[in-house]
Sequence to fold (267 residues):
Amino acid sequence: MTVTTKTNPGAFQSFPKTTLRKILSKTYARLRQGDVPAVINGLVADSSNWLIQSQKKPRYYCNLCERQLPYFVHLSNRLRIKWHSVCPNCNSRPRHRGLKVLYQAVLQDLDKPEVIHFAPEPVFYPLFRHLEKSYQTTDYILEDVDFPKEDIQALSFATESFDMALCNHVIEHVPEDDKAIAEVARILKKQGLAIFTIPGNWRRNKTITFKDLSFNGHFRDYGMDVVNLLSRSFSSVEIKDLADYNHDYQFPLGILEKTNLAFICRK
Ligand SMILES: [Zn+2]
Fold:
């Protein structure tokens, strides 16, 4: 099977509405796996989705598909519920809606930067279209990228090749995250910028490393100590809570405080 960016979150797919039948069959499947936390979180999130999806009055804004929406779809897994998460129209997550504003602000200060985007999300492509061949994509698994089969722990790119690296929800899937971060820093030019988003619990300091690879292919659930890890490879690490961008529009982007942080790292 070909794995493409179209299967990535944020790929302009619409998100189907839920039904009571779907809720029951998901609950049954989770029960059969004995996954009680996933059952509880799933029932709370999905029944809330079922209740809100008939609403019509606009309450949120998706700045990627530029629509006012009555709701974003809640997601859940065994670790947490992600409230107001997925745009039902374009499949963007809160981090994508926040990052659009951040990327635009950063791009304003750069003259024709060379950009490398790891595990690229198609919702961002319009932002970089003006850069033409200076914007390039790469991934280890996805095949429809400029540089496929690149292992972020040992990249084939020359040292000091890029001005900007974008890397969302990647390093939690990598066995040696310290190597990956060092590699991203290596391929950046002096003063180059890497912007990471990483899933974690930002009210907790310590990163939890799983004994076995988790259900969603994560090696860890990060805590704020990830800043120390980033600081080993970068001269400065600025933390931006993407929830701040909710206020840039008439309706909020559905980003809850301290759930989606961007780490802006300067080489
Ligand atoms: Zn959208």
Summary: Residues 29 and 155 are 39 Å apart (CA to CA). The mean pLDDT is 95. The radius of gyration is 19 Å.
